[in-house]
TrEMBL record:
Alphabetical UniProt keywords: Kinase, Membrane, Phosphoprotein, Transferase, Transmembrane, Transmembrane helix, Two-component regulatory system
Taxonomy of the source species: Bacteria, Pseudomonadati, Pseudomonadota, Alphaproteobacteria, Hyphomicrobiales
Species of origin: Bradyrhizobium yuanmingense
UniProt keyword annotation of Transit peptide present: no
The name this protein goes by in its record: histidine kinase
EC numbers: 2.7.13.3
Gene3D superfamilies in the cross-refs: 1.10.287.130, Histidine kinase-like ATPase, C-terminal domain (3.30.565.10)
Record has Phosphoprotein as a keyword: yes
InterPro entries named in the record: HATPase_C_sf (IPR036890), HATPase_dom (IPR003594), His_kinase_dom (IPR005467), HisK_dim/P_dom (IPR003661), HisK_dim/P_sf (IPR036097), Sensor_HK_Regulatory (IPR050736), Sig_transdc_His_kin-like_C (IPR004358)
Source domain of life: Bacteria
Amino acid sequence: MSNPAEKPEVVQLPAEPVSAPSASSRRAAAQRVREARDKLTSTSGTRPAFDAEMLRQYAQTRLSASYVVMLLVVATGVLFGLWMQPIPAAAWTAGMLCIHSAMIRSCRRFLTEPASPAATRAWRTRFVVLDLLYGLCWMAILIHPVLDMVTETLMMFLMLLVIAVSSMLAANLPIAALAATAPVAVAMALSFVTTGSLDNYILAALSLAAEGYFVLLAHRLHSSTFATLEARAEKDALIGELEQAKAISDEARHRAEAANVAKSRFLAQMSHELRTPLNAILGFSEVMKSEIFGAHAVPVYKEYSADIHNSGVHLLNLINEILDLSRIEAGRYELNEEAVSLVGIVADCHHLMKLRASSRGITIHEVFEQAMPRLWADERAIRQVVLNLLSNSIKFTPQGGEIWLKAGWTASGGQYLSVRDSGSGIPEDEIPVVLASFGQGSNSIKSAEQGAGLGLPIAKNLIDLHGGTFTLKSKLRIGTEVIVTFPPERVMSALAPLSDDSPPLQPESSVVPDEKRRPRHKPIMSAGTGS
């Protein structure tokens, strides 16, 4: 007995990931579908809205040229009344005026009624029929047998005039222009051909050529009008999209502002809620660390109290940094500006951080220019900037490294501060990261002393508030340098007093004309570059 055939193993191939179409491709696809649907529901192959607009322009053109057409009909009837009997000419004139009045009345009714696809198709058919009757009436008068005595040149001129006027008036509706002009041109061509002479053959050919030319001209005018409408529709659509995008952006901005206000309220409330118990922790831990009420029974309790106090101080500094960054981002940080010495602030910060640097075997060098004038700035903000920069340099500089502190003049007359270390450096692609709020580089994450990532962003924002520049340069395994510059407008300089012959602010008294005027002086210190 043979074994049954084994069932073949079916291996399912992994499905290829389908990428979601972009917004622009979805918008283009929706537009193509909408245009195809509009063409299927339109009578002319265009959008239904364009059909209604074309008919509206056609009706407006007819109304604006109604008196010109009436004048042409009356003049032609009077002229033909001279060659034929007056009664047939008057009857033709009356019939033409009736058709023209029906056309004018239809145009006015069309402009007053609301537009709809069904009504547009009905009015389109009505206008084409009226134009056809208009052309047949002109054909009847031009090929009348009584007018054989009229020269072919005059007949040709009248035919061209009729075709030109009809083509221009019905250019927005090409089928109506063809219905109004084709009977006239074909009838005139046949009338010329039946005579049998060569000149009339040429006139017949010219009649057909003129008909083709004016039909082409009407088609070109229709195309240009359609292109104008299409451009206007695209412009309106673009304006609509821009208004919608603006509304969305305004709504997003309002949400962001509300979120920012909520964040500010939360931080303000949390700062109070955290600082109240934190002050108690710091106070009691300091009392226990200092053994004010007596020595501890177990000596290790003193070390624990010191750790609690140091952790509380670190947490308090972190809360203060978060609040400072929140106020800066919200634009509510106010500078308490006064005349300060940049060199003095840098030297004080060096003195505060010297013990910490010495414990790590780091040497700090000072390079200060002498006799530098004061700056008009916020002393607390500048001190916070210098301490943050110096603390980062000490944190990421290995034992036995060096740090250089520099302060001096800039080329434009301002002052600068530079902090350079011989640490591990920062990769170039991570510089924007460390300058962002709560951003930390790879070296900071790997090191034992991790911070919150707020020192550099706060320092940069504080310098921006002073109108200065904050530049960070770093190379791996070489070191990092931060250069802070202050504009010349913040440098305080002494101004010389005015000369004695300067005019007084008020006229001298006539009682004591010989009294000498005292020289007037301006204040010694003033903000600016000085001259």
